[in-house]
Design brief:
By secondary structure, this protein is α+β, with helices and mostly antiparallel strands. It contains six helices and ten strands, in the order ββαααββαβββββαβα. The chain has helices spanning 22-25, 27-36, 40-49, 63-70, 127-132, 158-180; strands at 13-14, 20-21, 53-54, 60-61, 73-78, 90-95, 104-109, 113-116, 121-124, 135-142. The strands form three sheets. A six-stranded antiparallel beta sheet has the order 5-10-6-7-8-9. Strands 1-2 form a two-stranded antiparallel ribbon. Strand 3 and strand 4 (60-61) form a beta hairpin. The longest helix has 23 residues, at 158-180.
């Protein structure tokens, strides 16, 4: 996954009204861009066409609409820091600074690190929580082929099942012998 720096796009406008600066407020768009591998200007045009943006300035990304437009799954928002999804990547909302109130910022969450579009930096997974003492949320996007397959429960009666399987295999072989005669 290519790390992108939103500050390199200072002066480039995005959203429905093209009134908002990518360098200042494009972090969530850049997270989607890093995950998809689509440059942010092209992805912005796609999001406008797919009606993903909302809000007064037309620059807020609707998570459900973005997932649908990209062909991803979306499992909602989880505000428990201990519920990190078992798959990567996904998007994490953080508090950008220790200043009072929430300074909303988005990063790409990998299992052990975050990819921060503000400056294009890879950071420790809880960098912003350590800085601001506040966790905000995981945006639970499921990129196709990223979600792990469920692990089957341990077999409680494996010996019995294996015996039944062997019996069925024996019956199949017997029928095949009869048919081939």
């Amino acid at each position: 996954m290519k790390l992108l720096n939103q500050l390199a796009y200072k002066g480039t406008k995005f959203g429905k009204k093209k009134a908002t600066d990518m360098g200042d407020y494009g972090c969530k768009l850049f997270c989607f861009s890093m995950i998809t591998g689509i440059d942010p200007v092209t992805l912005d045009k796609f999001f406008v066409e797919k009606n993903v943006y909302f809000g007064n300035a037309g620059d807020l990304i609707d998570d459900t609409a973005a997932a649908k437009a990209l062909g991803w799954g979306y499992k909602g928002v989880d505000k428990n820091i201990n519920n990190m999804p078992d798959w990567e990547p996904t998007i994490k909302e953080v508090d950008f600074s220790a200043a009072p109130g929430k300074q909303q910022h988005f990063v790409v969450r990998m299992k052990e690190t975050i990819l921060d579009p503000y400056g294009g930096v890879e950071r420790t997974k809880n960098f912003y929580e350590e800085k601001s003492n506040q966790f905000v949320s995981y945006r639970l996007f499921v990129v196709p082929n990223q979600e792990p397959k469920p692990v089957p429960a341990p077999c409680q009666n494996c010996a019995e099942l294996q015996e039944a399987l062997d019996t069925v295999k024996g019956k199949i072989e017997e029928v095949q012998r009869i048919l081939s005669s």
